[in-house]
C-alpha cells in the first residue's frame, strides 16, 4: 500500500522537476536578450562529460600515433652532419713523406760541400717551395764514411744509410736510367721500406771528373743536371753541382717541383685544389671499387674480312701486370668478345692527299654506334660494377684505311679516342687494305705481336680514363725524365696518386651519400627504415673514421680500404631496396582510411564542446550578474 | 734401360704435347650452323622452322668465361653464373593446330610449345641454393629477353621436377610457365642479338617483324645444354635457337592452272619472298654451314606418287619404270602436281615422326647464293592434292568441367587419331590387334595451389574401362602448399595401341585468394599452364616393337594441350573501402547519439516527446500497480 501511495509522489516530483527544467531550458533557449538571472552557479556535470570525451580522444591520440607509426631504425643524423662538416672544413688527404738523400762520394764531405747545416737549409727551403701541401721531409747525407739525418723520424720507414757504401758510384753507370732504377729498387727492397706515400729523391753528387762530359751530354740541363723519376717510388738527380755555396735553395726548389708535380699529382703540373677534385670525381669505378674492362673486337663488315684475335695471350702478357699493380686502387677484371656487323655511326670522307678515309674531329662523339654495337653490360659483373668498354674497330673494305683527324687537322697517331667514363675506341686498319680487293669473308687473326701497338694505346687509354696523363710527361726543359713502367704500364708512384684520389673520392662520396640519405629520411616520415640501413650507416661512418685515423698514421692501404668500405656501405644503405618501395607510400591512403571515422565523430565532439562551453559561460555570467545584484 | 727411359720420356712428352695441342684446338672450337626447314602444310599454310646452333667446344673454363668469339657472351655468363646444366626458354604465340598441321616431331629439337613463356632449367650439382639460383636466373633472363620472366621467381608457380624432360637426376630442376605472357617484338630483338650475324645476314634476314607476328603460330626458343662429360665433353656448351612459324603465303596469283579445281580448294603458291617478304641474299659469313630444306611430308609424297601413277596409268603409254620411279626423282623432276622454281642440290630421305613413309628433304645450300642471285625457294601448284598431316597415333586435349565458382574438374582426353587417316596404309593403328605393343602415356601438369585438387577423385578410364589407380597407374605427385608451391602431378598409364580413348579426370575446389594476390584483371580468370602429354613405346616390349617396322618410327612424342582458364570468385575490389566507410559511419552515428544522450538532460527528452512520455508514465503506473499487487500478494 505504501508503494501505491508513493506513485503520485513520484509523479509530482517528476512533474516538479519538469517544471523546473522547463523554466531553465526555456530561459536558455529563448533568451539571448533574456536578462533573467540565476541564483546558483551553473552545474558542471555536462561540461564534465564533454571534457571527459575530449580527454579520451586526446589520450587516444598517442596510442593511435604509435600504432600507425612505421618502423624507423635510429640513424645517427648528427654524426652524419658532423662527418660531412668535418670533411668540408678539412679535406681528407693521405699524407706523403719525402726522403732526400745526398749520396755522395766521400770526397764531397771532406771538401765540406754538404754539411749538417746545409741539410737543414734544404729541408727548410723545400717546405717553403712545397707550400701548403704537407710533405713530411727528411734529409739525409749518406756518405761512405758518415751518415747524418735531419727532419722527421719515423722509425724504419725511411731508407737507411749505406747507399753510398753499397757501391752506387762504382757499380752502376749513372747514365743508364733503367739499371740505376733497378739498383735503387733493389736497395729499397732490401730495407723493406717501399710503402705507399713514401718517396725518395736521391741526389747523386757530381764527381769532379764527370763535370765536363756530363755538361757536354746534356746541354739544356747544364746548370741543373738531370732528374729522373723511376718506376717505383724514387727519383734521382745526377750531375748536380754541390760545390758552390748556397746550392741548397736551388736544389730544394727542384726537388719540390718533382715531388709536387709527379709524386703528388701524378705528372700533371700542380694545379689548384679545385681542379684536382674534378679529376677525382671522374674515376670510373663502381661504389665498391670494381670495374670490368670489356674488350670488343668489332668487325664492321664480316663480308669483307673477319678478324679474330689472341686476346688470351694479350691478357696474360700485357694486361695481367697492369691489373695486379692496380689491385690496391681498383679490382679490375677482363672479358672480351668479337662482334660482327658493327658499322660506325658517322660517315667518313676520302682524303686524296692522305690516301685515307677520315673521320673529322667534330664527328668523333658520334662514332660509337649504340644501335649496332651490342657491348652488353655483363651479367658476370657483380653488384654495381662499372663497365669500361674498349672497342677495337676493324673498318669495312670500303672505308679502309680509316683514320681519325685531330682538331688540328692532322691524323691521330694513336687512331683512337677515349670517352670519359665509357671507355675507348681504337681503329685497326688491315695493313695495305687500300690495295686489297675485299676477299669474301677471309679470315685474319691478330696475333699478340700485331696487337702490341694497340695494347699500348689501350694502356694509355686506361691511364687517361683513370686520370693519369696518357704517357709519362717528359719535361726536358727542366731536365726531368722518366723511366717508363714498361711491364705494368703504371708506375708505383702513379698507383699511389690514384690510391690517394680514390680514397679522397670515396670518403667524400660516402659523406655526401650519407648526407643525402639523412635528408631523404628526414623528409619522408612515412618511410620504413630497416635495421640494416641503420647498421650500414653506422658501419660506413665507422669506416670513414677508421680511414681518417689510418691516414694520420700513414697506412695507405688500410686507409684506402676503409674508405672504399665506407663508400660501398653508404651506397648500399642508400640503394637499399626497401627504401625504394616505401617512397611511394601515399598519404591519401591514410586519409581515406581515417576520415570516415574521425570526421563524423569529431564533429559531434567539437560541436558539443563548443555548445557546452558557450552555455556554461553564459550561465556563469547570469549567476555573476545575480550575485552582483545581491551584493549591491 | 736408358733407351727405355728415353722412350718413355718421349712418350710422356708426346702425350703432354698432344694434350696441349688438343686443349688448344678445343679451346677455339666454336661453330655456328644455321638452317631453315620449310614445310608446306596440308591446309595451304607453310611452316618455317629456323634453327641456329652455336657450339662451344670443351676446354678451360676460366679462359672461356672471359673471351668470346661466336658464342654470345650474355648466355655464357648466365650459364656460368647460375650453374646451368640445361635450360630451355620458349616464347610462343598462337595455337598449334594438331589436326590440321600434324605433329612437329619430324623436325629435330622442335616441340610444340604452349602459349606464353615456358622456362625450365636443370642446375649443375653444387652447394649453392638452387632456389636462389633460379630466382636470379629468372631475373637475368627477364632482363635479357625483355619479358616478365621474373614473375617465375615465386616458388608458388614453379615445379621442382621437370617431368619427362628431366634427364636422370643430374641436378635440381625448376620448371615454370607464364601462360599469359604476351610475346612480341621486344622478345625477338634480344633473341636475334644472340646470333653472331643478328638480322644483318643469313637466314635471320627473313625474319621480318610484322610478318612473323601476324603468323598463325610462332614459337621462339632458346635451348642451352652444357656438356656433362658423358655424351659431350665437360665445359662444352650448345646453344640452339629455334624459331617456328606458320605463315600464309601472300601470293594471291591464280594458284591452280587449268581451272579444273574449285576455287576454295586451291592451294596458294608460295615462295620465300611471298612468305617472308624477301628472298634470301646469302648466308651469314660466320656460319660453317647454311641450308634451306624443303620438307615434303611422307603423306604428301605418298599421295604424290599415287596421283602420278594414276595419271600415268590413265594415259596410253604407261611405263613400268615410271610407275616405280623413286619419289626423289618425282619431286626433283617436274611432276603433274607442282613445280619447284629451283632444283635442289640434293634430296635426302628422313624417316620422320610416326608416319609410315619417309619424308623428303630437298636441300639448298645458301652459301652458294648471294645478293646478286638471291635464293627464293618456292612451289607452284599445278593440281590440287590433298594429304593428311603426319600425325602421331594420338591427339590430346584438356578442358575444364563444372560451373559456378565452387568446384570443377580437369579432364584430359587422349583420342586415337583414327578418323584423321583415310588411307589404310597410313593409319597408325595396326589391324592386327593381338599382340600389338603397348604405349606409355604420361601427362605432366603444374596446377597452381588455388586450384585445390582432390586426388581421391582421380579417375583414369581406358576405352570405357576404369583403371585401378593402385594397379595400372604410375602416379607421381607433389601436393600443393598454399602460397608456397603448386601441385605437380605426373600420371602415367600404359595403354594398348588400339585404344581409342583415354580419359583422365581429377576434381578440384576453387580456392580463395587474398585481395592483394589478384592480378589487375582478375575477372578474366586464372590460367593453368598446359599439360604435357608424352607418348612412348612401352619399355618392356621395346624389341618386339621394332620388328613390326611400323612402330620403330614412334619415338617419344610430346604434345602440349592448350592452357586452361579457371574462373575464381573475384571480390569486389572496392569492398575494403566500402566496408571501412560503412562501419565507420555506423560507429560515428552511434557515438554521436551516445554523446548527445550523455550531454543533454533526460528531462528535455521527456518533455520533447510528449506522447511517448504519456505512454511511458502509463507504463510506469502499470508497473507500479503490478509491483504493488505483487507486494500485496506477498504480504
Structural overview:
Chain B: This is GPI transamidase component PIG-T. Chain B: It comes from Ceratodon purpureus. Chain B: Pfam families: Gpi16 (PF04113). Chain B: Keywords: Membrane, Signal, Transmembrane, Transmembrane helix. Chain B: InterPro entries: PIG-T (IPR007245). The complex is a heterodimer of chains A (about 625) and B (about 625). By secondary structure, chain A is α/β, with parallel strands linked by helices. Chain A contains 17 helices and 17 strands. Chain A has helices spanning about 1-30, 45-70, 75-90, 105-110, 115-130, 170, 175-190, 210-215, 245-265, 275-280, 310-325, 450-465, 490-525, 530-555, 555-575, 575-580, 585-630; strands at about 95-105, 135-145, 145-150, 200-205, 225-230, 235-240, 290-300, 305-310, 330-340, 350, 355-360, 385-395, 400-405, 415-420, 425, 440-445, 480. Chain A has a 7-stranded mixed β-sheet, with helices on both faces. In chain A, strands 9-7-12-15-14 form a 5-stranded mixed β-sheet, covered by helices on one side. In chain A, helix 2 (about 45-70) runs antiparallel to helix 17 and helix 11 runs parallel beside helix 12 (about 450-465). The longest helix of chain A is centred in the last third of the chain and has 45 residues, at about 585-630. Chain A is flat and about 125 Å long. The two termini of chain A are about 50 Å apart. In chain A, about 35% of the residues are buried. Residues about 1-25, about 255-260, about 420-435, about 540-555 and about 605-610 of chain B have low confidence and may be disordered. Chain B contains 16 helices and 27 strands. Chain B has an 11-stranded mixed β-sheet. With about 625 residues, chain B is of the alpha+beta class. In chain B, strand 21 and strand 22 (about 485-495) form a beta hairpin. Chain B is elongated and about 125 Å long. The N and C termini of chain B lie far apart (about 140 Å). Classes of the chains: A alpha/beta (about 625), B alpha+beta (about 625). At the A-B interface, helix 1, helix 2, helix 11, strand 9 and helix 17 of A face helix 2, strand 3, helix 3, helix 5 and helix 14 of B.
Amino acid at each position: 500500500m505504501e508503494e501505491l501511495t508513493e506513485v503520485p509522489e513520484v509523479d509530482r516530483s517528476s512533474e516538479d522537476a519538469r517544471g523546473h527544467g522547463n523554466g531553465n531550458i526555456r530561459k536558455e533557449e529563448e533568451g539571448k536578450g533574456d536578462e533573467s538571472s540565476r541564483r546558483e552557479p551553473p552545474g558542471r556535470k555536462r561540461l564534465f562529460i564533454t571534457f571527459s570525451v575530449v580527454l579520451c580522444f586526446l589520450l587516444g591520440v598517442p596510442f593511435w600515433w604509435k600504432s600507425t607509426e612505421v618502423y624507423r631504425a635510429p640513424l645517427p643524423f648528427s654524426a652524419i652532419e658532423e662527418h660531412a662538416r668535418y670533411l668540408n672544413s678539412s679535406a681528407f688527404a693521405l699524407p706523403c713523406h719525402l726522403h732526400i738523400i745526398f749520396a755522395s762520394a766521400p770526397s764531397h764531405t771532406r771538401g765540406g760541400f754538404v754539411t749538417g747545416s746545409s741539410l737543414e737549409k734544404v729541408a727548410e727551403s723545400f717546405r717553403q717551395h712545397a707550400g701548403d701541401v704537407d710533405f713530411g721531409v727528411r734529409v739525409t747525407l749518406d756518405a761512405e764514411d758518415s751518415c747524418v739525418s735531419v727532419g722527421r723520424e719515423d722509425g724504419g720507414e725511411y731508407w737507411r744509410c749505406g747507399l753510398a757504401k753499397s757501391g752506387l758510384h762504382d757499380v752502376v753507370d749513372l747514365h743508364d736510367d733503367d739499371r740505376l732504377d733497378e739498383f735503387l729498387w733493389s736497395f729499397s727492397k732490401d730495407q723493406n721500406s717501399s710503402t705507399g706515400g713514401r718517396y725518395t729523391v736521391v741526389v747523386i753528387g757530381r764527381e769532379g771528373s764527370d763535370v765536363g762530359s756530363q755538361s757536354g751530354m746534356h746541354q739544356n740541363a747544364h746548370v741543373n743536371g738531370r732528374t729522373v723519376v723511376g718506376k717505383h717510388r724514387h727519383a734521382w738527380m745526377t750531375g748536380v753541382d754541390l760545390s758552390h755555396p748556397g746550392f741548397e735553395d736551388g736544389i730544394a726548389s727542384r726537388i719540390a717541383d718533382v715531388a709536387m708535380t709527379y709524386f703528388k699529382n701524378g705528372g700533371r703540373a700542380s694545379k689548384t685544389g679545385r681542379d684536382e677534385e674534378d679529376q677525382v670525381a671522374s674515376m670510373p669505378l663502381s661504389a665498391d671499387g670494381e670495374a670490368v674492362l670489356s674488350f670488343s673486337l668489332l668487325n664492321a663488315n664480316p663480308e669483307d674480312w673477319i678478324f679474330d684475335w689472341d686476346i688470351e695471350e694479350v691478357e696474360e702478357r700485357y694486361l695481367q701486370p697492369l691489373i695486379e699493380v692496380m689491385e690496391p686502387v681498383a679490382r679490375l677484371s677482363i672479358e672480351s668478345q668479337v662482334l660482327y656487323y658493327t658499322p660506325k655511326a658517322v660517315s667518313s670522307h676520302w682524303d686524296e692527299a692522305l690516301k685515307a678515309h677520315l673521320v673529322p674531329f667534330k664527328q668523333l662523339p658520334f662514332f660509337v654506334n649504340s644501335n649496332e654495337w651490342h657491348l652488353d653490360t655483363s651479367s658476370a659483373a657483380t653488384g654495381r660494377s662499372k663497365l669500361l668498354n674498349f672497342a677495337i674497330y676493324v673498318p669495312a673494305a670500303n672505308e679502309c684505311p680509316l683514320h681519325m683527324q685531330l682538331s688540328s687537322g692532322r691524323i691521330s697517331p694513336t687512331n683512337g679516342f677515349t670517352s670519359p667514363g665509357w671507355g675507348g675506341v681504337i681503329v685497326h686498319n688491315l695493313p695495305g687494305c687500300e690495295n686489297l680487293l675485299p676477299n669474301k669473308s677471309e679470315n685474319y687473326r691478330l696475333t699478340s705481336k700485331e696487337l702490341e701497338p694497340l695494347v699500348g694505346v689501350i694502356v694509355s687509354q686506361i691511364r687517361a680514363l683513370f686520370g693519369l696523363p696518357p704517357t709519362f710527361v717528359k719535361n726536358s726543359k727542366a731536365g726531368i725524365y722518366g723511366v717508363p713502367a714498361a711491364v705494368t704500364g703504371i708506375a708505383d708512384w702513379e698507383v699511389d696518386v690514384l690510391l690517394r684520389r680514390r680514397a679522397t673520392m670515396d670518403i667524400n662520396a660516402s659523406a655526401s651519400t650519407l648526407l643525402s640519405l639523412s635528408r631523404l629520411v628526414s623528409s619522408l616520415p612515412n618511410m620504413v627504415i630497416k635495421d640494416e640501413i641503420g647498421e650500414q650507416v653506422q658501419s660506413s661512418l665507422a669506416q670513414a673514421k677508421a680511414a681518417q685515423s689510418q691516414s694520420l698514421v700513414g697506412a695507405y692501404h688500410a686507409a684506402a680500404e676503409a674508405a672504399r668500405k665506407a663508400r660501398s656501405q653508404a651506397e648500399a644503405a642508400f640503394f637499399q631496396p626497401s627504401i625504394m618501395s616505401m617512397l611511394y607510400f601515399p598519404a591519401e591512403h591514410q586519409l581515406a582510411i581515417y576520415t570516415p571515422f574521425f570526421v563524423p565523430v569529431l564533429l559531434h565532439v567539437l560541436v558539443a564542446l563548443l555548445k557546452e562551453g558557450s552555455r556554461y559561460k553564459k550561465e556563469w555570467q547570469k549567476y555573476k550578474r545575480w550575485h552582483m545584484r545581491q551584493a549591491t | 734401360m736408358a733407351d727405355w727411359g728415353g722412350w718413355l720420356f718421349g712418350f710422356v712428352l708426346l702425350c703432354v704435347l698432344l694434350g696441349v695441342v688438343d686443349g688448344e684446338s678445343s679451346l677455339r672450337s666454336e661453330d655456328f650452323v644455321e638452317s631453315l626447314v620449310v614445310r608446306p602444310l596440308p591446309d595451304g599454310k607453310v611452316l618455317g622452322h629456323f634453327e641456329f646452333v652455336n657450339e662451344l667446344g670443351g676446354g678451360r673454363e676460366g679462359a672461356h668465361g672471359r673471351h668470346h668469339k661466336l658464342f654470345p657472351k650474355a648466355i655464357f655468363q648466365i650459364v656460368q653464373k647460375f650453374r646451368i646444366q640445361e635450360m630451355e626458354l620458349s616464347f610462343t604465340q598462337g595455337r598449334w593446330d594438331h589436326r590440321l598441321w600434324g605433329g612437329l616431331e619430324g623436325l629435330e629439337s622442335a616441340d610444340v610449345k604452349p602459349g606464353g613463356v615456358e622456362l625450365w632449367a636443370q642446375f649443375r650439382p653444387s652447394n649453392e641454393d638452387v632456389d636462389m639460383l633460379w630466382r636470379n636466373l629468372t631475373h637475368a633472363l627477364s632482363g635479357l629477353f625483355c619479358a616478365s620472366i621474373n614473375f617465375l621467381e615465386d616458388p608458388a608457380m614453379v615445379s621442382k621436377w621437370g617431368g619427362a624432360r628431366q634427364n636422370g637426376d643430374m641436378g635440381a630442376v625448376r620448371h615454370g610457365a607464364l601462360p599469359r605472357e604476351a610475346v612480341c617484338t621486344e622478345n625477338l630483338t634480344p633473341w636475334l642479338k644472340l646470333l653472331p650475324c643478328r638480322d644483318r645476314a643469313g637466314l635471320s634476314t627473313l625474319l621480318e617483324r610484322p610478318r612473323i607476328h601476324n603468323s598463325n603460330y610462332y614459337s621462339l626458343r632458346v635451348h642451352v645444354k652444357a656438356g656433362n662429360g658423358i655424351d659431350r665433353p665437360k665445359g662444352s656448351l650448345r646453344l640452339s635457337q629455334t624459331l617456328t612459324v606458320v605463315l600464309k603465303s601472300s601470293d594471291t596469283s591464280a594458284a591452280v592452272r587449268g581451272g579444273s579445281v574449285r576455287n576454295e580448294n586451291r592451294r596458294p603458291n608460295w615462295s620465300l619472298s611471298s612468305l617472308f617478304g624477301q628472298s634470301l641474299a646469302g648466308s651469314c659469313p660466320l656460319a660453317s654451314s647454311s641450308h634451306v630444306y624443303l620438307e615434303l611430308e611422307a603423306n604428301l609424297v605418298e599421295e604424290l606418287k599415287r596421283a602420278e601413277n594414276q595419271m600415268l596409268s590413265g594415259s596410253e603409254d604407261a611405263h613400268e619404270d615410271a610407275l616405280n620411279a623413286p619419289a626423289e626423282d618425282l619431286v626433283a623432276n617436274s611432276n603433274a602436281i607442282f613445280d619447284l622454281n629451283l632444283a635442289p642440290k640434293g634430296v635426302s630421305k628422313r624417316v620422320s615422326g610416326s608416319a609410315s613413309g619417309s619424308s623428303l628433304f630437298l636441300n639448298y645450300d645458301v652459301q652458294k647464293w648471294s645478293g646478286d642471285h638471291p635464293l627464293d625457294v618456292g612451289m607452284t601448284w599445278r593440281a590440287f592434292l590433298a594429304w593428311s598431316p603426319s600425325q602421331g597415333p594420338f591427339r590430346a586435349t584438356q578442358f575444364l568441367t563444372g560451373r559456378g565458382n565452387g568446384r570443377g574438374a580437369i579432364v584430359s582426353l587422349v583420342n586415337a587419331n583414327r578418323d584423321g587417316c583415310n588411307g589404310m596404309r597410313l593409319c597408325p593403328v595396326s589391324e592386327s590387334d593381338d599382340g600389338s605393343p603397348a604405349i606409355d602415356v604420361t601427362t605432366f601438369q603444374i596446377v597452381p595451389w588455388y586450384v585445390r585438387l582432390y586426388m581421391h577423385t582421380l579417375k583414369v578410364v581406358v576405352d570405357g574401362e576404369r583403371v585401378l589407380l593402385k594397379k595400372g597407374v604410375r602416379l607421381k605427385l607433389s601436393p600443393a602448399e598454399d602460397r608456397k608451391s603448386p601441385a605437380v602431378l605426373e600420371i602415367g598409364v600404359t595403354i594398348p595401341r588400339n585404344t581409342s580413348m583415354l580419359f583422365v579426370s581429377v576434381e578440384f575446389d576453387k580456392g580463395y585468394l587474398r585481395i592483394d594476390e589478384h592480378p589487375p584483371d582478375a575477372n578474366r580468370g586464372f590460367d593453368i599452364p598446359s599439360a604435357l602429354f608424352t607418348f612412348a613405346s612401352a619399355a618392356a616390349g621395346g624389341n618386339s616393337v621394332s620388328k613390326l617396322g611400323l612402330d620403330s618410327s614412334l619415338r617419344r612424342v610430346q604434345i602440349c594441350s592448350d592452357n586452361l582458364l579457371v574462373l575464381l570468385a573475384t571480390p569486389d575490389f572496392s569492398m575494403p573501402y566500402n566496408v571501412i566507410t560503412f562501419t565507420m559511419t555506423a560507429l560515428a552515428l552511434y557515438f554521436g547519439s551516445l554523446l548527445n544522450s550523455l550531454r543533454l538532460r533526460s528531462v528535455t527528452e521527456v518533455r520533447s516527446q510528449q506522447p511517448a512520455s504519456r505512454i511511458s508514465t502509463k507504463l510506469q503506473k502499470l508497473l507500479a500497480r503490478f509491483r504493488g499487487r505483487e507486494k500485496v500478494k506477498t504480504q
